[in-house]
Amino acid sequence: YRIGDEQGIGSAGDLVLCPPETSFQRSIRMPLSFHYFHFDWVHRDTGEVVSAALAERHLLPCHLPLARTNRLQSVFGYLRSFPHASVQKPVLRWVEHMVDDLLFMFMTERHLVPLRLDRPTTDPLMDQAALTIRQHAFEELNLHRVASAYGLTPVQFSRRFTAAFKMTAHDYLTTLRLERACKLLQETTLNLEDIAEKCGYRNGSYISRLFVKKLQTTPSEFRAAHRL
């Protein structure tokens, strides 16, 4: 495919997001079901359609292989079952809900995808440090103490960890905690305060701000869209 000046190769279970008013070209190299959705971006507060110029500033072409392919296939199955020619409001609401679910998966995994890089890096010491972070991620973990435990200053540790994992140790820890929070929102009825405690945070308000900043949604919206 080609999106503007960007190009790549997609495969089964991938999502490709194209910004507004950007040319999108594709060719099929092997038999593959290709689902195409065209939609408007709507402002969260006003309900108005966001202009293409504004959306483009916040949205770059992005190609993301999804980890949760079963959920993706389920959403596609529901979408195929709807009558495409129907403009009845109940049907349109269900279609909008399913497309919203695709976008939630996209935004969530776009942030969480670095966690799947759990294979060893070229820095064994940082591999051990990452293991320490994973083992204690849901406690009150002090990264300065982690650095000290490996004989490094905080600055040395930060630079070395970032070089190894292409993300800071703080972002690595945040991603671990967000992944657990997402799982708890999906699979339990725990309130946000209890979820925060189980994820290593002191209160629910902080984790709520983190969701908006990192995932562009609130915990309650995420739960409503992804509840199993």
Could you walk me through the main structural features you see in this protein, from its secondary elements to its overall organization?
InterPro entries: Homeodomain-like_sf, HTH_AraC. One of its GO terms (molecular function) is sequence-specific DNA binding. This is Helix-turn-helix transcriptional regulator. With 228 residues, the protein is mostly helical. The protein has 10 helices and 5 strands, in the order ββββαβααααααααα. β1 and β2 form a beta hairpin. α7 packs across α8. The longest helix is centred in the middle third of the chain and has 24 residues. The two termini are 33 Å apart. 15% of the residues are buried.
Q: H/E order of the elements?
A: EEEEHEHHHHHHHHH
Can you give the helix content as a percent range? 40-55%
User: What Rg, in angstroms, do the CA atoms define?
Assistant: 20 Å
What composes the largest sheet? 3 strands, antiparallel
Mean pLDDT reading: 80
The strand count comes to 5
Protein name: Helix-turn-helix transcriptional regulator
Pfam families: HTH_18
InterPro entries: Homeodomain-like_sf, HTH_AraC
Domain HTH araC/xylS-type: 127-225
